[in-house]
Amino acid sequence: MNYCPERPLKDTCTLKVTITPHFNADSADRLSIHLVLQNPRCAAHHPIFFFETYCGNVPAHHYDENSIIALDAAGPLHLHFTKLTNPDGPDQEWRVDRDTVGDVQLRFSVSPRNVDITTPIGPRVDLRRDQGGLIGNGQWFLPRPAKDRVYRNVVEWDLSRAPEGTSAVWSFGEGPGPVIKNGGPTVIADSVFMVGPIRSYPGASSSSADSSGATVALSAKVFWFGELPENLQRLNRYNILLFPKLVDFFQSAGASYRIFIRRAIRGFGGRGCLESYVLEYDELSWKETDGELVSIFSHEMVHSFSMMGPEIDGYENDWFVEGIAQFYSIYLPYRFGLRGEDYFRDGLNASLQTYGTSPRIGMDVLDSQREFFDDWYAEMIPYMRGCAYLLQIDSRLRKKTRRFGMDQNSPLDDIVVHMAARFRRGNQLQARDWLEYLRPYLGEDVAQEFQDMLRGKPLDLSDNIVIHENWNLTPRMQEILEFGFDKSSINKRVISGVVPESRAANAGLEDGAQLLSMSRAGLCSTSLSTNLELFVEKEGVKSHISYWPRSFNKARVWQLEK
């Protein structure tokens, strides 16, 4: 979930978290947590908190029952950790051994995750060290209340023993606090915490001017440690300009937004949270183009406005969650006047060719969800198939209603905005709700067409228009993506699974070679002109291997050529 549903403020219960950072000689080293839950009235042997033990392929902070000091007005409490009845779910129950009396307090210590070059890239939720500070998502180290109700969430920082120049930020405000945010039990968990020698943009300014010279209220802010790469630094202002336009588009009441940027050993990507997102960059990110940065900035911020809940079978509806973020990251910067037509065309064509040249184009979405972190190609399915499907739906709706052009919302925009408003009110929308929106326009067949898309039937975009009535797609034959070796090689740092007679093999890549470094594979997925660059070592000989990660077979793709 990426933003908190609005709930009535009556009968609120306070959940207060006080965070004390501890420092070694030159940097933040760990956190002490003091959590107070106001009079929960929890019965013996019932859960008082839930804790997510993992997120995707990222294990959460390890706690055992002796790690937590718990007490209430009657004295010490014993917590018993129990798994939920769903063996496939991440939640652990923290149960009390007796009826609670008055407020319940927890005290525990949190150390950042130890990572190295072999740590798999996954959801950016873990607490990490970064250039003297600490930054991470609450769900990695904080339990959430078990009772689904409105909470008065309060976060306060104790910086009394912190070095000079230390500051702290939460997704909803700057410390030391207290900062208050009303909402459901996920607020504390699904937000970002940052402490240390923080730098920010903008500084003391409170307004800026957009491209037309009009004054824009600065309700967004960017935070980071150390020195940002020049390209990231330069585009900080884009985030500031984008946020109020998204607020207006989604008819949201959002008053503020925070962007957190952290440096990683390897990896480039983001994670949407409540009223905020995390962007992670590495030493190669200075090579990212402005277009690529605008795309990911927009993608992650859209996550904070548009969401869909999971299905009963465990499918997370990423076709929509990631698909709509991909779709709007291409379309909205153009519509808002923040980027030109070239940005739109290039982004749309990159997304469509990634969809069309995927060797997993026919993969079921449930399989892609299971294989997401282990397969080169599965991870792109929700983004690119979802985007292509939404483009097709947008075309059909525009034709049906004769609403073309950029000067008004399309029917798809109206549907997504209305769904977002319902989600903010606490409605857990699923695919069936999406189909109910479409049936009045597109008829009963839309349900089977939707299932065909989920199961992997390739989309026929031959009749598609794009925004305007005369913007059509043209078919082209392009080479299918093929990296030519196992993705597991990246984490193991040893090449394996080289495909015989592939371009990788022809370039000299061999099983057993030690992987020293590699360019970002995602750039090759979206570009037809980018080689994969690897530095390897085998039998004491270091080599630079460069090849075009495409097979010798072609597939049909659809492109906007105008």
Features of the shown structure:
single chain, seven-stranded mixed sheet, alpha+beta, 2 domains, Immunoglobulin-like, disordered N terminus, Neutral Protease, domain 2
Structural features, described:
- This protein is an alpha+beta fold.
- The chain has two domains: 13-303, Immunoglobulin-like (Sandwich); 318-475, Neutral Protease, domain 2 (Orthogonal Bundle), CATH 1.10.390.
- Helices cover 26% and strands 30% of the residues.
- The strands form eight sheets. The protein has a seven-stranded mixed sheet with strand order 7-6-10-2-1-14-17, with no helix packed on it. Strands 11-12-18-15-16 form a five-stranded antiparallel sheet, with no helix packed on it.
- β8 (79-83) and β9 (91-96) form a beta hairpin.
